[in-house]
Every structure is written in C-alpha cells, then in structure tokens.
C-alpha cells in the first residue's frame, strides 16, 4: 500500500469518528493532510503530481465549498474533502468526491426515514423540520473515500 493511501485512510477514519462524536472536524487534522498530499505528489511525480493533487483539492473546494456557502455543510467537511482530494489526486479525487456525495444522499435518506419513524421534536414539542437535522457528513466523506480506495482508483 502506498503511503498516501494509508494516510488518506487514517485521515477519513479519524475525521468520521471525530465528526460522529462532536459534529466537528478539526483543522489540526485536515490542514496537515492537505499539505502532505500536495507535497507527496509533488515529490513523487513533479509538476504533474502537484497539478493532479491540487486539482483534487480544488474540485472538492469548488463543489463542497458551494454547498457550504448555501448552508448545506460545515467548513470542516469542505476541508476534509479537499485534504482527501489532495492525497488521492486526480482522477481518484473526483471518484471519491462523487462517491461521498452518493453516500451522503444515502445517509440523508436514512436520517429522514428515522426522523419520520421517531417523530423527532424540538424542546417545545413541535415536530423538528427536516432541514434542522444535522448529519455528520465526515462519515459520508469517509465512506466515499474508502469506497474509492477499495475499488483501486488511483493516480
């Protein structure tokens, strides 16, 4: 197993656990991983590696950043996907991004079904609107990234 693959696996697993427990993904986890992805690919493949790694991070920042700006996810989720994108590089980063989106959709559907079954309510007793449900999206990012790694898509 290549070093960057081991790092990305460790990154997304730690982030998913952290997100599950605290609903946050810390910068001390994502930012060094982003930098290490850029450095790894630059040193191992030169300018081509750097551009592939930067492209992976940029796609994540662009797509998930837009969702963040619309209020659909937290900044930690965006940084986590960018770090995973930098570590995987293109085209694997794009595959992981789309797999994470698919996993997020599945998780959201399960959460909506659970919400309806449990009739969740706010402290005043009113039904909790679906838009108020907060999902630990780090889990979806981990699932999509791990799925990409298992499928063997790599730069």
Polypeptide structure, described:
There is one protein chain. By secondary structure, the chain is mainly alpha-helical. It has one domain. It has five helices and no strands. It has helices at residues 3-22, 27-69, 75-88, 92-118, 137-151. It is elongated, with a radius of gyration of 16 Å. 38% of the residues are buried. The model has no long low-confidence stretch (mean pLDDT 90).
Layout of helices and strands:
Blueprint: H1 3-22, H2 27-69, H3 75-88, H4 92-118, H5 137-151
Helix pairs in contact: 1-2, 1-3, 1-5, 2-3, 2-4, 3-4, 3-5, 4-5
Features:
mainly alpha, 155 residues, single chain, elongated, 77% helix
Radius of gyration: 16 Å
The helix content, as a percent range, equals over 70%
Q: Helical element count?
A: 5
Overall, the morphology is: elongated
**What fraction strand?**
under 5%
What is the end-to-end distance?
13 Å
Tally of individual domains: 1
Strand tally, please? 0
Task: Give a brief outline of the structure.
With 155 residues, the chain is mainly α. It has 5 helices and no strands.
């Amino acid at each position: 197993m290549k070093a960057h693959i081991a790092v990305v696996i460790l990154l997304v697993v730690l982030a998913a656990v952290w997100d599950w427990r605290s609903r946050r993904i810390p910068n001390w986890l994502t930012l060094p991983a982003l930098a290490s992805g850029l450095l790894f690919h630059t040193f191992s493949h030169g300018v081509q590696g750097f551009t592939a790694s930067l492209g992976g991070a940029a796609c994540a920042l662009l797509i998930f950043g837009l969702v963040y700006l619309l209020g659909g996810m937290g900044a930690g989720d965006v940084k986590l996907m960018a770090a995973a994108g930098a570590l995987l590089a293109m085209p694997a980063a794009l595959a992981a991004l789309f797999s994470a989106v698919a996993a997020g959709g599945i998780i959201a559907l399960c959460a909506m079904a659970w919400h309806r079954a449990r009739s969740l309510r706010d402290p005043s007793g009113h039904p909790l609107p679906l838009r108020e449900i907060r999902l630990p999206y780090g889990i979806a990012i981990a699932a999509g990234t791990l799925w990409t790694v298992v499928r063997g898509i790599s730069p």
